[in-house]
Amino acid sequence: MTQATLPIDSQAVVESAKNRQEPDWMTALRSKALELAATLELPKLEKTRIDRWNLSSFGTYRKPEDLTSAADLPEPAKSLLNTDNLLVQRNSGRVFASLAPELAQQGVIFTDLETAVREHGALVQNYFMKAVDMGENLLTALHAAAWSGGVFLYVPKNVTVEVPLQALFLTDDAAASFSPHVLVVAEANSSVTYVDNYLSADNGGEALVQNGVVEVFAASGASIRYASVHHLGKNVTDLTYRRAVLENDAKIEWVVGELNAGNTMSDTTTLLKGNGSNADVKVICVGTDEQKLNLTTRNIHIGKSSESDMITRAVMRDEATAIINGITKIEKGATKANGQQTEKVLMLSPKARGDANPILLIDEDDVKAGHAASVGQVNAEQVFYMMSRGITREEATRLIIYGFLAPVVSEIPIERLEEQLQHLVERKLGQ
Amino acid sequence: MSSAPKLTIEGLRATIEGKEILKGLNLEIKGGEVHAIMGPNGTGKSTLASTLMGHPKYEVTDGAVTLDGEDVLEMAVDERARAGLFLAMQYPSEITGVTNADFLRSAINARRGEGNEISLIKFIRLMEGKMKDLEMNPEFMHRYLNEGFSGGEKKRNEILQMLVLEPRLVILDEIDSGLDIDALRIVANGVNAMRSPERGFLIITHYQRLLNYITPDFVHVMMQGRIVKSGGPELAQRLENEGYDWVKEELGIVDETVGQEDEFKVPMNTTAPRY
């Protein structure tokens, strides 16, 4: 019985999904994913033994209590965001959702994915698990089987959403499953900014796996800004697949802050399918203690004249280890494509480790591609220069670290998020 | 701290990577005085500047440096700065992501101490005023520290820091190199505006040119890691006219350089590549 080895209870997954009155196609999909899961393995990650990570506890679905007002949100959530156009998931499911009436009138849908599956089933079915294949590996199959809560954001054709839509994913109960699925669909020539936060409150130190998937579909000429900040606690292992598919002239800007305290695997991939599509990916990461991080950003060019740029900056402290992979793939026929990437790692302690692996895979001649990677320590000459102006060593180091992260942090589309990220980095570095 | 400063250097010896560069240097600089140190390349001038500021690459092996009787060599680099020492560097670092404004505000606040930070308005006014004096584009305030600055812009930025931080003892290390005549004039005006009985200057230069704009009280010639000759402004003039050979002859010095025995020499019998 291979089923017995799965870290989730198959029967309970299907039962609880049925109890939530989801349509049959979704329950059938879950069952199929469970069958697949029994045959699949963990992903093979570059220089990272993910099989040694604590992946035993995925929790089980627990129905959360709906909140009547934002005032009832748990403490760490309150300080983060304003409460307009906000969706909050606590543990397994949604507890709070608000959307401005004028956006709803324009046809914008912003709700949890479970509700969307019930109310906009056909729409969701077109996209769900289409950018990420559930058969890719054990984690994607487990996600497809056991996801709950999540976000569905739909922006109709030609609609521009001016204000950012925000989501908050909070875990404070290690027995409850925490595997949200975020699905964003932007129709032709629409535009939207979406920002989310993943955080954990004290749950007594029990281990838990966040097994999340993000799928983004940008139709012709659509423009999406997607910012995501993860600051989950030490006991949470964070596994996230983010995938975007861009049609002609569509554009995505990713801003990702990997500020967890526990082991983290993330894979942020954009498929530049359409001609003239454009992807801009910015990732910052701070590793502390004995954290292990494996971060991949990947841009796959299929469309002609498609352009991509990715920047990753990682600061490693203590005995933290980061494997940073940047992959630019240009397929045959993607003429005039331009793919650029930079990965930089700053090491603050002799026991910290960082590997930057820039990878260019190019099957077309008429393209531009470039990469730069560096791994280094705080530059002694720069510290001397700053100290020679009276700045203390600690402050000089702090300024240099923030300067190192600035190309990402200062580009964040929302000022409050920028401040928040700055604050989180500061807290994580303990300075 | 507003009294006239006194910097005393006695028998200073310093090494880099085990090579001795400063070989017993003596000098005293008091408030109101402008000292110029001149000398050919490789005689230890810049080593002196870096050693006084506490650059980690240089190790002091003997001698003493005091500022108002306080042991400078015991102080960390930032403590030296807060005691009033300032070094305008020949090759200032470029620091990505840190704006000029962030950097200077941190530097000012480091002097003022916690609870006494400069207000943003005051800071901006201060910067705008000083930048105008130096004919700097105000946009430079928001650029990353020295990143992509031309040689001349970096030098002006060093002088800007001097004007803003108001140090008590200023060391200018080859501040004139790479400057055109207009920039040289602007930089010299900045320095002259700072001359006061409460401030001393040590100007390290290769050329007499800068001293046409900043008249020194004392001129010293450095060779072989020590000061070998001192005089007034007329000494600089004579060096400009006659070079250094007469000094070497007078003192019986054959090779004026120090610590350069391993220097790479261009092989003379090769042909230059054709482009």
Describe the structure.
With 431 residues, chain A is of the alpha/beta class. Chain A is built from ten helices and 19 strands. Chain A folds into two domains: 2-274, no CATH class; 378-431, no CATH class. Chain A is globular, with a radius of gyration of 21 Å. Chain B is α/β, with parallel strands linked by helices and 275 residues long. Helix content of chain B is 32%, strand content 27%. In chain B, strand 9 (169-173), helix 6 and strand 10 (200-205) form a beta-alpha-beta unit. The longest helix of chain B has 15 residues, at 151-165. Chains A and B meet through helix 8 and helix 9 of A and helix 2, strand 7 and helix 3 of B. Chain B: Residues 7-249 form the ABC transporter domain. Chain B: One of its GO terms (molecular function) is ATP binding.
Overall 3D shape of chain A: globular
Q: Which strand-content bin applies to the residues of chain B?
A: 25-35%
Helix-residue proportion of chain A: 10-25%
What name is given to the CATH topology of the domain at 6-94 and 167-251 in chain B?
Rossmann fold
**CATH architecture classification of the domain at 6-94 and 167-251 in chain B:** 3-Layer(aba) Sandwich
How many extended strands of chain A?
A: 19
- Number of DSSP-assigned strands of chain B: 12
Summing up helix and strand content along with how strands pair, one would put the structural category of chain A as alpha/beta
Distance, first to last CA of chain B: 60 Å
Biggest interface goes to:
A-B, 25 and 29 residues
Mean pLDDT of chain A: 92
Shape of chain B: globular
What key phrases describe this protein's structure?
heterodimer, A: about 425 residues, alpha/beta, 2 domains, ten-stranded mixed sheet, nine-stranded mixed sheet, globular, B: about 280 residues, Rossmann fold, six-stranded mixed sheet, four-stranded antiparallel sheet, 8 helices, 12 strands, ATP binding (chain B), AAA+_ATPase (chain B), P-loop_NTPase (chain B)
